[in-house]
Design brief:
about 475 residues; mainly alpha; 18 helices
C-alpha cells in the first residue's frame, strides 16, 4: 500500500503544474489538501442552489399544486439577503472575537442558517401536502421561512469563505484560489443535480423529505470540514483596533475612483447574462422542438462554456492581460451568443442554438472572472471582505431581478404576440423569447459603455496579473 502511494506521488510530481488543475495555486502555507478542504463550502452552496431553484421549485408547482406566483416569490426570497453581503464582508474584516477569529464565526453562522432552513423545509412540505395538518397559512409561511434561512446562510457562507480564501492565499496565488472555489461551486451544482435526479427517480413525498434531510446533514459536514483549522487564532486583532463605521469604509472603497463604475458594470453585465436563466430550456422545447433529454443537456453545454472561460482567462491573466478588458471581451461574446440564439429560431437550427448556449457560458464566465479579479484589486488595506461582498451583493441582486424581469417580459410579449396585437408576422412562440434576448443584447452593450473607461490603455504600465489558472495548459 505504501509503495503504491509513493509511486502515485512520484508520478503526480512529474506531471507538475502544467497538467494538474490548480496545482499552481498550492503554496507551502496553503497545501493542496487544505485548499481542497476549503473549497467544500462552495459545494454545499451549489447543492443548496440546485435544491431551491430546481428540485423544490418543480415539486411545489407540480406535485404540491401550489400557485406559480407563490413559488416564484419563495424562490426569490433568498435574494432579499443578497444586498447584505457587503455588510457581512465588512463586518468579517473587522470582527472582534475572544478566540481571535474573523471569518470562521460567519462561516459557522452561515452553515447553521443553511442547516436550519433545510431542517424546517420537510415540515413545511408536509403541511403543504396535507393542509388538514394545520392552518392554511402555516405551510406557505414555513416554506418561506425555510427558503429565507437557506438564502441567508448561503450568502453568509460564501462571502466569508471567499474572504477567508483571500486571506490565506498570497497575492500571486489569490486569483487562482478564488477560481478554484468558483469551479467547485459549478462542480457542486452539477454533481448535486445528478445525485438528486438519481435519488428522486422513484419519487414519493417520503423520499423527497429524506433527500432534504440528507442535504441538511451533508451541508453541516462539508462546511465544518471546510473551515476546520483554516483560520489561525490571533487574539492580538482585538487590541487597540476600532471597527470603522460601515459608511466610512464604503466611502473609502468608492474613493478609489473605479469601484462605483465597476459595480455598475457588474450589475448590467450580470443582468444581461441572467435574464435567460429560466428561458433557454423552454425556448429549445417550445420553439425548436427539442426533447426533454436534449434540453437537459444544455446545462452541461453551458457549464463547458464557463470552464472554457476559466481556461482562457488563466492564460490571458498570466500574460499580463487587463481583467477589465477580459470582462469586456466576455460581454462582447455574450452579444454574439444571444444573436446566435435568436437566429436559431428562423433557421430552425438546434446546432446554432447549442453553440449560442455554449457561448453564453463562455461570455458569462469571462465577464465574471474579469470583474471578480478587478474587485479583488479594490480590496486592499484589509478590505477584502467588503470588496468581495460588494461584488457578490451586486451580482446576486442583479441576477435575481433580471431573472424575474426576463420571465415577466417573455410572458407579456408572448401574450401580446399570441393575441395578434403585434401583427401576423410575430404570432409565433419565438416572439416572447426574442424580446428577452434582444433586451439582453442591449443591456450588454450598456455594460460595455460603462466598463470602457476602466480598461487599461496601451500607455499604462503592464502589470503581470496573477492567473486564474485551471492549469497552465501546455502550448
Amino acid at each position: 500500500m505504501k509503495r503504491s502511494v509513493a509511486i502515485t506521488q512520484k508520478v503526480l510530481s512529474r506531471l507538475g503544474t502544467r497538467w494538474l488543475p490548480f496545482a499552481d495555486a498550492v503554496t507551502e502555507e496553503l497545501p493542496l489538501d487544505r485548499l481542497l478542504r476549503l473549497s467544500l463550502f462552495q459545494v454545499s452552496v451549489g447543492m443548496a442552489i440546485v435544491l431551491l431553484n430546481g428540485t423544490l421549485n418543480r415539486v411545489m408547482v407540480l406535485e404540491l399544486d401550489q400557485p406559480a406566483w407563490l413559488v416564484s416569490v419563495m424562490v426569490s426570497l433568498p435574494l432579499l439577503f443578497a444586498p447584505a453581503r457587503a455588510l457581512i464582508g465588512f463586518r468579517s474584516d473587522h470582527h472582534r472575537s475572544a478566540l481571535g477569529w474573523r471569518r470562521v464565526p460567519y462561516l459557522w453562522l452561515g452553515s447553521i442558517a443553511q442547516f436550519g432552513g433545510l431542517a424546517i423545509m420537510p415540515f413545511a412540505l408536509l403541511v403543504l401536502w396535507d393542509p388538514a395538518m394545520g392552518p392554511a397559512w402555516v405551510g406557505p409561511a414555513a416554506a418561506a421561512l425555510a427558503f429565507l434561512l437557506v438564502g441567508a446562510g448561503l450568502h453568509t457562507t460564501q462571502t466569508a469563505g471567499l474572504a477567508l480564501a483571500t486571506d490565506l492565499a498570497n497575492e500571486e496565488n489569490r486569483p487562482r484560489v478564488v477560481a478554484l472555489l468558483y469551479v467547485m461551486l459549478l462542480v457542486g451544482m452539477i454533481g448535486s443535480s445528478f445525485v438528486f435526479s438519481f435519488l428522486l427517480a422513484d419519487f414519493s413525498p417520503v423520499r423527497l423529505i429524506q433527500v432534504i434531510q440528507g442535504a441538511a446533514a451533508v451541508t453541516v459536514v462539508l462546511n465544518v470540514v471546510a473551515l476546520w483549522k483554516q483560520e489561525a487564532r490571533d487574539p492580538s486583532r482585538n487590541r487597540g483596533i476600532e471597527r470603522p463605521p460601515f459608511r466610512e469604509a464604503w466611502r473609502r472603497l468608492c474613493q478609489q475612483g473605479r469601484a462605483t463604475r465597476l459595480l455598475l458594470a457588474v450589475a448590467l453585465g450580470s443582468a444581461g447574462f441572467s435574464m435567460q436563466d429560466i428561458l433557454l430550456e423552454p425556448y429549445g422545447g417550445e420553439v425548436l422542438g427539442l426533447s426533454v433529454s436534449a434540453t437537459t443537456g444544455l446545462t452541461a453545454i453551458f457549464a463547458l462554456g464557463m470552464l472554457g472561460a476559466f481556461a482562457f482567462a488563466s492564460r490571458q491573466l498570466s500574460r499580463g492581460a487587463d481583467p477589465v478588458r477580459l470582462a469586456a471581451y466576455g460581454a462582447l461574446v455574450g452579444i454574439f451568443a444571444f444573436a446566435a440564439v435568436i437566429f436559431a429560431a428562423p433557421l430552425g437550427s438546434a446546432d446554432l442554438f447549442r453553440f449560442g448556449t455554449f457561448a453564453i457560458g463562455l461570455g458569462g464566465g469571462l465577464f465574471a472572472v474579469g470583474t471578480l479579479t478587478a474587485a479583488m484589486r479594490l480590496g486592499e488595506d484589509g478590505q477584502a471582505g467588503l470588496a468581495l461582498g460588494a461584488w457578490g451583493a451586486v451580482q446576486a441582486t442583479a441576477t435575481g431581478l433580471a431573472v424575474a424581469a426576463g420571465g415577466a417580459l417573455r410572458d407579456t410579449v408572448g401574450h401580446l404576440a399570441a393575441s395578434g396585437a403585434l401583427g401576423e408576422a410575430l404570432v409565433g412562440p419565438a416572439t416572447g423569447y426574442g424580446a428577452v434576448y434582444h433586451l439582453e443584447i442591449a443591456v450588454l452593450f450598456a455594460a460595455l459603455v460603462i466598463i470602457g473607461p476602466l480598461v487599461r490603455g496601451p500607455e499604462d504600465e503592464v502589470v503581470r496579473q496573477p492567473a486564474f489558472y485551471l492549469a497552465e495548459f501546455p502550448e
